[in-house]
Write a structure and sequence with these properties.
The structure holds two protein chains of two kinds. Chain A has one domain (3-100): 2Fe-2S iron-sulphur cluster binding domain, sarcosine oxidase, alpha subunit, N-terminal domain (Ubiquitin-like (UB roll), Roll). Chain A is mainly β. In chain A, 6% of the residues lie in helices and 26% in strands. The mean pLDDT of chain A is 93. In chain B, the strands form five sheets. In chain B, strands 1, 2, 3, 4, 5, 6 and 20 form a seven-stranded mixed β-sheet that branches. A five-stranded parallel β-sheet of chain B has the order 8-16-9-10-11. The model of chain B has no long low-confidence stretch (mean pLDDT 93). The chains are: A mainly beta, B alpha/beta. At the A-B interface, helix 1 and strand 4 of A face strand 8 and helix 3 of B. Bound molecules: flavin-adenine dinucleotide and FE2/S2 (inorganic) cluster (FES). Flavin-adenine dinucleotide binds at residues 9-15, 32-35, 40-42, 45, 84-85, 113-116, 118, 134-135, 138, 160, 163, 249, 252, 255, 291-292, 298-299, 302 of chain B. FE2/S2 (inorganic) cluster binds next to loops of chain A.
């Protein structure tokens, strides 16, 4: 899964393309990341699309609005549930997990 | 509690332009945005803008944003980023979230420049990962340089749909289809032309019947429309891993409602907007609006409206004399009229005039009531 690379490496207009310079953990997989980018961008670059499963029917949800409005991208980040990954910048070594339902704090789980 | 003469909510093109105009008149504004980055939608726009020289036509959107931000910061405007404003009282008290909890701000005048929200469509499978707004895809490719997928179906052929589809091509994705419910393409011919030349198929009089997939999108089923009604037996499957919706924007007017501003419905500009006069002032005399919140248009008009609101607020605060303010506002209105000409512009111009007329009628009624009481 983490072999997939969806980063834009060449572009006719954008000249500030950056290569990964850090990493985060997606469950037990190390994912390359660019300092300052949102967690969701790092996951998307590795082809990870399911951020959480819904409370009642367990349906998958992924990035929808990309700007912090819809809550579809909530995940458990460093043990804290309900973090909107599209507006949360990556930090080296951060731990990101798929959220189930309303999510649980790490010490509850 | 924090106090300021002028509070501006939203650091998009409208809010920044308002802050700049106010600062040039000698009013120090506080600009608040919930985003970590200023610029609103402008920083996602990598194509060249239309219009005349004064409107920076031929300059790419993000360059305009960089320039605007630089000028604003040079004027020592205070910009607070990462603070969502979620409360506004009719008397001018605003409440925003901050790392330390709720923060109250008291302002003499307020300019709301909160922009618009993207609309969405409901269909079977529309909640599958891989189905997203065009804005989300645009944010991912142009700001974060990550492709949301490899093969995209775009729903909606207005300018946002056409531009984002082309930008997906530029970023290296395939665009499998642009789907439009109306019988004709909605956006400008130049944008559609670029896609056609790249071989992107257009499906007019079509809509998405459903998205297919279990954990994420694997394809869509389109269906033909006859006068916007689905025609049985015309389903057509297109494999793709991403579906983008570009089906219009709705002005974000919640804060204006909280401030007690009277609303009016104007479908040509995206729905319900606060009534405003020709100074961008709402029916709450201390609250002004600018940009997409006052009707969805373009970044160029948002900037002019911002300048107008900033100038008018500075005048109301006593920083500009009537004569200087009138001259500045006339210049802005002349430029704005230029932007609202042509086939598409004229419709927006007419809709804008309707809002101002309704506002005048409302104010006249209010005055009459006052005289009778
Ligand atoms: C996907 C997409 C593509 C577009 N493409 C184009 C294009 O190519 N060309 C063009 O001319 N126009 C385009 N537009 C239209 C665009 O909305 C306008 O051009 C312009 O950006 C409007 O400026 P604005 O300042 O009114 O709003 P915005 O640019 O949307 O800025 C509003 C700001 O307010 C902030 N905000 C909102 N609510 C709050 C709150 N409660 N508290 C704190 N901050 C808040 C937001 O974070 C945002 O930064 C596009 C819009 C979208 C959504
Ligand atoms: S994708 Fe909508 S809040 Fe993150």
């Amino acid at each position: 899964m983490s072999d997939m690379d969806r980063r834009v490496h060449a572009h006719p207009i954008l000249d500030d393309l950056r290569e990964p310079d850090t990493y985060i953990w997606y469950h037990d997989t190390k994912i390359p990341a660019v300092t300052g980018e949102p967690v969701a961008a790092a996951l998307m670059a590795s082809g990870i699309r399911v951020m959480r499963h819904t409370v009642k029917t367990g349906q998958p949800r992924g990035i929808f609005c990309g700007i912090g409005r819809c809550n579809d991208c909530k995940m458990v980040v460093d043990g804290v549930p309900n973090v909107r990954t599209c507006v949360t910048p990556v930090r080296e070594g951060m731990r990101v997990e798929t959220q189930q339902g309303l999510g649980a704090w790490r010490d509850e789980a | 509690m924090k106090t300021t003469d002028l509070l501006i909510v939203g650091a998009g093109p409208a809010g920044l332009s308002a802050a700049l105009a106010a600062a040039q008149a000698g009013v120090r504004a506080l600009v608040i945005d919930e985003n970590q980055r200023p610029g609103g939608q402008l920083f996602k726009q990598i194509h060249k803008f239309f219009g005349s020289g004064v409107h920076k036509a031929g300059t790419r959107g993000f360059r305009i944003g960089e320039q605007l931000l630089k000028e604003t910061l040079e004027q020592n405007v205070e910009v607070q980023l990462g603070y969502p404003v979620y409360g506004l009282f009719p008397d001018g008290r605003a409440v925003c979230g901050s790392p330390e909890g709720a923060q109250e701000i008291r302002a003499k005048k307020i300019i709301l420049a909160t922009g618009a929200n993207e609309n969405n469509l409901c269909f079977e499978g529309s909640t599958l990962p891989g189905v997203m707004t065009a804005g989300a895809a645009q944010t991912m490719i142009n700001l974060h340089h990550v492709l949301p997928g490899q093969r995209v179906v775009m729903i909606g052929s207005g300018n946002v749909g056409l531009i984002v589809a082309y930008q997906l091509l530029q970023a290296g994705a395939q665009v499998a289809a642009v789907v439009e419910a109306a019988p004709a393409i909605g956006g400008y011919g130049v944008h559609a032309g670029k896609l056609r030349r790249a071989g992107v198929p257009f499906y007019v009089s079509h809509t998405v019947h459903r998205a297919i997939g279990t954990d994420s999108v694997e394809g869509v089923e389109l269906v033909k429309l006859d006068n916007f009604r689905k025609v049985d037996g015309t389903q057509l499957e297109i494999p793709c891993d991403t579906v983008c919706m570009a089906v219009g924007l709705t002005p974000m007017v919640e804060l204006a409602r909280l401030a007690g501003c009277e609303m009016t419905e104007i479908p040509a500009l995206g729905g319900v907007v606060p009534m405003h006069d020709e100074n961008m002032r709402t029916t709450n005399p201390d609250v002004y609006i600018a940009g997409d919140i006052s009707g969805v248009e373009e970044a160029s008009t948002a900037m002019e409206e911002g300048r107008l609101a900033g100038t008018a607020a500075a005048e109301a605060l006593g920083a500009l004399d009537a004569e200087t303010a009138a001259r500045l506002k006339d210049e802005i209105r002349r430029r704005m009229a230029l932007l609202r000409s042509g086939e598409f512009g004229a419709k927006r111009q007419a809709a804008k005039e309707t809002i101002v007329r309704r506002c005048e009628a409302f104010e006249a009624g209010r005055q009459e009531e006052g005289e009778r009481a």
